Amino acid sequence: MRSKPNILVTGTPGTGKTTTSSALAEATHLRHINIGDLVKDKKLHDGWDDELQCYIINEDLVCDELEDTMEEGGNIVDYHGCDFFPERLFDRVVVLQTENSVLYDRLSKRGYTGAKLTNNIECEIFQELLEEAKESYREEIVVAMKSNTVDDMNRNVTTITEWVSSWGSTT
Ligand code: DAT
């Protein structure tokens, strides 16, 4: 067993993965790995998708890059997808969820418009990330958490921090 757990924080863009992961990293002293930044910095992509306005992630390169770090444990991985990581990498999979109207405002503020905006809102309406997480990981390690308000976020960070503190003593 890993001495420290690996946690995946996933959800539709705008649900608060990066903000939550960063607060969680501060509270737990685990390492925050933002996959979007990693892909960009280490060029783990197959170019730029003009239509979706994002890098085309190369999932194999990302998994290779993460392997050693993940084996050590103690990582918080933040990404809006979860089905391509090897299942054994994670001890907890957190799926953040946000009400449509709140998410719409956050994504509009971020400059999302047109298809990019509606695709992400639909992704949230259909709970696509929760489905993907349940299909990819054992159901008992998948937890859905509401992320509408700052209070929600603080509560989520506290809950996960308590779980991290108990790691090793209860498992
Ligand atoms: P993600 O990483 O899922 O794309 P983010 O962490 O960048 O999302 O957050 C998007 C914006 O929404 C950012 O301005 C912070 C804000 N936000 C995120 N979670 C929130 C919450 N639970 N309550 C209030 N604001 C939140």
TrEMBL record:
Name of this chain's protein = Adenylate kinase isoenzyme 6 homolog
Q: Which GO terms describe its biological process?
A: ribosomal small subunit biogenesis; rRNA processing
Q: Name one GO molecular function term.
A: ATP binding
Record carries keyword 4Fe-4S: no
List the EC numbers from the record.
Answer: 2.7.4.3
Task: Please list the residue ranges that the record marks as compositionally biased, kind Low complexity.
Answer: 10-20
Tell me the organism's taxonomic lineage.
Answer: Eukaryota, Viridiplantae, Streptophyta, Embryophyta, Tracheophyta
Q: Which organism is it from?
A: Mikania micrantha (bitter vine)
Q: Which reaction does it catalyse?
A: AMP + ATP = 2 ADP; ATP + H2O = ADP + phosphate + H(+)
